[in-house]
């Protein structure tokens, strides 16, 4: 049970004065809360002996009111500080998770599903919040309050009666410990089922158009219902175990009441204690119901929190496959792929095989080849997305392993095949490449990407909302916004990874011409299936099954009689239309 608290000792150590203050205020409040029972017992004894007077009654009432008000103020103070601590730790862990998500390489996201990561950042984090708020509250309040009450029962009434009345408590602790371990295991299963369901929801939402076009709504509903039922079964297993805590607490409490009434009557007959003492003792026993019940909840809440924190820590403790221990910077963008071979972490075959290319700063490299030939894999080596490949990749005479990821990527403008856009305005998506860009730089990026004519047709121009993942835009518009986003930073190395596939031939020519004119002294790499986009390139390579099978200029490859020549003839004769 206390494993959860041990895992968070770093936080409690950093905020020790907050929790010391909470403990001190709580002890004071607990002492105040046992005073009313004493006042009631004394009042009953005064009445039974005939010593009560009007003045004495008013003194008891005023003392009672003062104690209640002070208890209320103290209770508000310590609970406010405790819940504030829970919100703080939730915020810290959430930021740690976000930092981890932002820093991890693609291999991490290939191994972990998006829905599962979302579940850890939401549902699991909510369980951690509950444990650090109500769990710690219950732990501190229940233990200190119980200790205060037991001390008051023994000192002010009878240690003997207290001992016998509390005999059932160890049995409760034993049973609840076993239940807590079962809840921990069941909660892990429940959270994993929630992650699977979350993944399913994401797939349904993202693929809703495809589902409708194939009329698969009923099958998707049936599949999702099965996942929902599975999650419900696991969740209800946790709730069934949880529901056992309260009845157990009530049974133990009733046993304590029976002992207190029976043995208390014997002690009263002997003259050891008074009637008022019996009333006070039973009030204390009644007050013990909350801490005893709270201890039951404590096992439950902390076990759930521990299960969720374990899942979160598993993500936080994951080491990135790509080491970022380089600190060299580059001046020129001369690059050399020297016999580079690479295999994806989850792949069973070599995805790049002995690739060698030499590209001088300011040159343009065109990359062509069939789908799945390794074109994008080659590009990802430059971006340091995956662990260092075999062979050498050198930029400005320095091995890429010696270059920091942040510094390297700051030199690169990358337009991927996915054309990822955020649910913001067109302008905000373009400025993402360079938030501090001037209006002139913004307009120039729009012109170079041939987006200006489309902006005139958009309802609000640059202020048009693109919708989630650019759903409100056409494929060509998304591609040109992505290109503008890269061009606005005027990168030393521009990489277009099949970034012109959704634009027409006329627009493609305009964009390529703009890039050639504006980037005469800067390196450009263009990956494409349309050979018209790379005919101007200084070097063109054709890839097949991870290898370079052809290399040269457009003229050289046109005369080679290979795949490039065949494709060029095909396009020239209009075969692609």
Quote the distance from N terminus to C terminus: 68 Å
Structural class: alpha/beta
Largest sheet: 6 strands, mixed
| Name of the CATH class of the largest domain | Mainly Alpha
Radius of gyration: 35 Å
Q: Work out the count of structural domains.
A: 2
Number of helices, where a helix is a run of at least 4 consecutive DSSP H or I residues: 22
Shape: elongated
Overall CATH architecture of the largest domain = Up-down Bundle
Number of strands: 10
In the sheet with the most strands, the strands line up as: 6-7-8-3-9-10
Q: Under CATH, the topology of the largest domain is which? A: ABC transporter transmembrane region fold
Look at the structure and give the mean pLDDT: 83
Organism: Salinicoccus sediminis
Main location: membrane
Domain ABC transmembrane type-1: 22-304
Subcellular location: Cell membrane
Descriptive overview:
- This protein is an alpha/beta fold and 577 residues long.
- It has 2 domains: 3-316, ABC transporter type 1, transmembrane domain (ABC transporter transmembrane region fold, Up-down Bundle); 335-411 and 491-572, P-loop containing nucleotide triphosphate hydrolases (Rossmann fold, 3-Layer(aba) Sandwich).
- Helix content is 64%, strand content 10%.
- The strands form 2 sheets. A 6-stranded mixed beta sheet has the order 6-7-8-3-9-10, sandwiched between helices. It has a 4-stranded antiparallel beta sheet with strand order 2-1-4-5, covered by helices on one side.
- A hairpin with a 2-residue loop joins strand 4 (390-395) and strand 5.
- Helix 6 crosses helix 9 and helix 17 (439-448) packs across helix 19.
- The longest helix is centred in the first third of the chain and has 50 residues, at 54-103.
- The chain is elongated, with a radius of gyration of 35 Å.
- It starts with a helix and ends in a 5-residue tail after the last helix.
- The model has no long low-confidence stretch (mean pLDDT 83).
- One of its GO terms (molecular function) is ABC-type oligopeptide transporter activity.
- May be involved in multidrug export. Transmembrane domains (TMD) form a pore in the cell membrane and the ATP-binding domain (NBD) is responsible for energy generation.
- The chain crosses the membrane at residues 20-40, 52-70, 133-155, 244-266, 278-302.
């Amino acid at each position: 049970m206390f494993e959860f608290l041990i895992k968070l000792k770093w936080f409690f150590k950093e905020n020790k004065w907050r929790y010391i203050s909470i403990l001190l205020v709580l002890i004071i409040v607990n002492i105040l809360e046992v005073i009313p029972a004493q006042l009631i017992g004394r009042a009953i004894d005064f009445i039974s002996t005939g010593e009560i007077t009007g003045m004495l009654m008013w003194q008891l009432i005023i003392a009672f009111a003062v104690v209640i008000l002070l208890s209320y103020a103290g209770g508000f103070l310590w609970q406010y500080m405790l819940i504030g601590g829970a919100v703080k730790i939730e915020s810290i862990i959430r930021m740690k998770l976000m930092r981890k998500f932002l820093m991890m390489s693609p291999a991490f996201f290939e191994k972990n599903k998006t829905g599962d990561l979302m579940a850890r950042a939401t549902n699991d984090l909510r369980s951690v919040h509950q444990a650090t708020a109500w769990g710690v509250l219950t732990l501190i309040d229940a233990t200190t309050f119980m200790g205060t009450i037991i001390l008051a029962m023994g000192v002010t009434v009878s240690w003997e009666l207290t001992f016998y009345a509390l005999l059932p408590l160890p049995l409760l602790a034993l049973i609840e410990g076993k239940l807590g371990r079962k809840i921990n295991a069941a909660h892990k299963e429940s959270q994993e089922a929630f992650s699977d369901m979350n993944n399913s929801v994401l797939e349904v939402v993202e693929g809703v158009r495809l589902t409708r076009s194939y009329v698969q709504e009923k099958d998707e509903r049936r599949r999702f219902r099965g996942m929902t039922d599975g999650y419900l079964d696991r969740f209800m297993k946790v709730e069934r175990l949880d529901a056992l805590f309260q009845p157990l607490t009530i049974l133990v409490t009733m046993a304590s009441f029976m002992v207190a009434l029976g043995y208390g009557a014997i002690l009263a007959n002997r003259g050891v204690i008074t009637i008022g003492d019996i009333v006070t003792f039973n009030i204390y026993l009644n007050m013990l119901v909350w801490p005893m019940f709270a201890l039951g909840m404590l096992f439950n809440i902390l076990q759930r929190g521990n299960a969720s924190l374990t899942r979160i820590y598993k993500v936080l403790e994951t080491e990135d496959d790509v080491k970022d221990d380089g600190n060299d910077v580059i001046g020129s963008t001369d690059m050399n792929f020297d016999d580079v071979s690479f295999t994806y972490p989850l792949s069973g075959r070599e995805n790049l095989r002995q690739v060698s290319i030499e590209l001088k700063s300011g040159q343009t490299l065109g990359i062509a080849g069939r789908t799945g030939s390794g074109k994008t894999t080659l590009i990802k080596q430059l971006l340091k997305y995956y662990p260092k490949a075999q062979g050498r990749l050198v930029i400005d005479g320095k091995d890429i392993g010696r270059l920091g990821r942040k510094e390297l990527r700051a030199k690169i403008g990358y337009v991927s095949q996915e054309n990822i856009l955020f649910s913001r305005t067109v302008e905000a998506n373009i400025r993402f490449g360079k938030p501090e860009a001037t209006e002139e730089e913004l307009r120039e990026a729009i012109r170079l990407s041939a987006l200006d004519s489309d902006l005139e047709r958009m309802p609000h121009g640059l202020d048009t909302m693109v919708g989630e993942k650019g759903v409100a835009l056409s494929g060509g518009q998304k591609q040109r916004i992505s290109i503008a986003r890269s061009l606005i930073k005027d990168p030393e190395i521009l990489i277009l990874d099949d970034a012109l596939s959704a634009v027409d031939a006329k627009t493609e020519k305009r964009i390529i011409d703009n890039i050639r004119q504006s980037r005469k002294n800067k390196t450009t790499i263009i990956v494409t299936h349309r050979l018209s986009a790379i005919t101007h390139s200084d070097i063109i390579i054709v890839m097949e099954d991870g290898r370079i099978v052809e290399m040269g200029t457009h003229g050289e490859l046109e005369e080679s009689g290979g795949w490039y020549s065949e494709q060029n003839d095909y396009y020239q004769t209009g075969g692609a239309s």
